[in-house]
Amino acid sequence: MLQERIVITGIGLTSPLGNDLASFREKLLAGESGVSTFPVRNMGEQPAGVCNFEQTKYQKRKEVRIGTRAGGIGIYCAHEALANAGLSLSEIDPSKVGVYLGITEHGNVETETEVCQLFDHYNEEVKYWSHHHNPRTVANNPAGEITINLGLTGPHYTVGAACAAGNAGIIQGVQMLSLGECDWALAGGVSESIRAYGIFAGFKSQGALATHEDPTKASRPFDRGRNGIVVSEGGCIYVLERLKDAQKRGANIIAEIMGYRINSDGTDYVLPNPERQEQCIRQALDRAEIDASMVDLVSSHATSTPQGDEQECKALRNVFNEETGTLINNTKSFIGHSMGAAGALELAGNIPSFLDGTAHGTINLDDLDPSCALPGLVMNEAKEKKGGINVILNNSFGMLGINSVLILKKFVG
Asked: What's the half-sphere exposure (Cβ side, CA atoms, 13 Å) at 251?
């Protein structure tokens, strides 16, 4: 059980389905895909989840040029989260704000671009290599760009946790608040993945890159015809606070964090281990001091790869059955896989279910793979849960066998 009760008081995001939670949720409930196409160097147009937020809303044009796409996404989300939380930087101590961002990778985009420019335009003359390269590519960059833009002087760093990183960033924020290292945590995940052709090429070489004549149908978790991942960008940052502090300032409390767990498969570079995933889920339930029957909704990680989806389903079936009555859905079917942002962004899309009691569907599920059949799977159309939704469990897993599970509950004062 958490020693300190930690709550969410603000959410800021950008996604392929919109740049605020209300827009994102509206399109999820409507069953609208956010996947389009994006031109990838050396590979042409590819299905992708593309964000269209106002880059200069919180940055000057020069700052956008100097910084990174991931940093810009983080800056946008951080400002939006603080505004949503009703926090003004002029009224809080900047040394008491910590920034903890999950990332899958960072620096690939900038390095690939610099190398290509050097070969294509500058005859390999190193003097033309950008002097902004090093600060752009250090691993702490996205979190660091936020602190510079906002003038924050508390701790900041990124959490490299592959595609489990969105959850991991939130978990880090919870832990630092519990330790008293900060009074507010800006925590979540960001991704600029669609701008790195190496990611597309790597998944293609692996046989794990989605293809479909209609890009809106390319991401199809659990479907018999699924054939790979749709790479997406995005970001989601939460304002986390200790409950007593949030109540003292009269904050609007969005949800409470009940429990979490991160573990490792210890078995394979890529293929998930369902036994370890199941263990991670059960240990998160134990930390939250609840059993599976108390979970109303599971946000699945399923990425639309043949083996990955099947492995997660094995773990889910062992924990959640007909008796638990738990609903299970998937957000990647709408927006693709936003890598380091995935866990945080997918959780955000489900948080409004605390208010409306409805689980959004899993779109593009035209032909359910029998190996992915799950009790409570919400297929295609949104489903209202009798008795409402009071507890959400969020799965987020990554390469090299890192698993993360986060459990939230509807806040009751």
From this structure: 31
Question: What is the chain's alpha carbon radius of gyration, rounded to the nearest angstrom?
Answer: 20
160-180 residue pLDDT tens: 999 999 999 999 999 999 999
Sheet with 35-40, strands from edge to edge, namely: 35-40, 44-49, 231-232
* Contact status, residue 239 vs residue 348, Cβ threshold 8 Å: no
All residues at 6 or more sequence positions from 9 whose CB lies less than 8 Å from its CB, including other chains: 85, 86, 87, 239, 240, 241, 246, 251, 252, 253, 254
State the pairing for strand pair 402-409/391-398: antiparallel
pLDDT tens digits, 192-234 = 999 999 999 999 999 999 999 999 999 999 999 999 999 999 9
Query: Minimal CA–CA distance to 412: which of 243, 294, 260, 296?
Result: 243
pLDDT band at 1 (very low <50, low <70, confident <90, very high): low
CB–CB of 159/172 below 8 Å? Answer: yes
User: Domains in the chain, ordered, with CATH?
Assistant: 6-248 (3.40.47.10), 259-409 (3.40.47.10)
pTM above 0.90? Answer: yes
The neighbouring-strand residues paired with 257 are 6, 408
Are 381 and 286 spatial neighbours (Cβ–Cβ below 8 Å)?
no
Q: Is the CB of residue 333 less than 8 Å from the CB of residue 299?
A: no
Cβ atoms of 142 and 340 within 8 Å: the answer is no
135 falls in which pLDDT band (50, 70, 90)? very high
**Catalytic residue positions?**
163, 301, 337
